[in-house]
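Section 5.1 Outputs to date
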Amino acid sequence: MSEQVLYVIYRGTPADRFDRAYYVEHHLPLVRNAFAAYGLVSLAAFYPAQDAPGTVAICECRFIDAASIEVAFSSPEVPVIMADVPRFTDLEPLRMRALPL
């Protein structure tokens, strides 16, 4: 088994609400605490430099393996994490797995 990466992407415009401070200081620790028991290894947030419609934020979630992603996102903690999303944005999170080429 090998480490697997899942990206959570928020797409919108520069005018859309996305509270970076809340995201980093509250939401990401919530995710880390909830998913660590299911194999989450690390989290990192990235913000595009361009001021145009498109990707507003990306969270890179590294898990120990593919199965741990499935277990984490099927866990009882998911509703709590999703209920926190409106506190920092109105954008819908989009989940994508990274696959090596």
